[in-house]
Specification:
The chain is mainly alpha-helical. The chain has helices spanning 5-18, 21-41, 46-63, 74-93, 121-138, 142-152, 158-165, 169-190, and strands at 107-109, 116-118. Helix 6 (142-152) packs across helix 8.
Amino acid sequence: MVPRKEAMTDLLVRIGANRDRQAYQAMFVYFAPRVKGFLMSKGADSALAEELMQDTMLTVWTKASMYHPGRGSASTWIFTIARNLRIDKLRRESVQHFDDVDGLEIAEDDPNTGRTVVAQDDAVIAGQERRLVAAAMKRLPTDQAEVIRLSFVDDLSQHDIADRLGLPLGTVKSRMRLAYNKLRQALESEL
């Protein structure tokens, strides 16, 4: 039996007002497979659709108090969250990195030897950056440093990190987000 529109609105309002776990469970059971199916219909593979569905349902739990019944139905609000998370994910993945002119190596002829050499400034700057990143990594809590290392050194996905460490995916994501923020702050203060 498909719940009535008013029932879904009521559940979402209860989640926002009282953190009602039973209301959230009912919303999750009803919407989780529908959100995953929606995301897969938009081109996400099963693993990505699962990840985005989890993020969507977590957002429903944490931001239900922001829902206003007069602005649209509960399902519209939830599917809009899923759509926006999918768009954000696509944007993050499709960012192209362009070389900055300052980072280009410029070959010059050495007037003393006549041989072509590459300016050494880039090597010095790269070495300084490596030292700053290493120092910032050492200041991270062990659990956060571990997920960053597994991601960037071992080239593991968040799902693989969660599997390897026996942690929920959400915990891995939280640790990475905290680590990124700490690294960014540390590096911005140094540069």
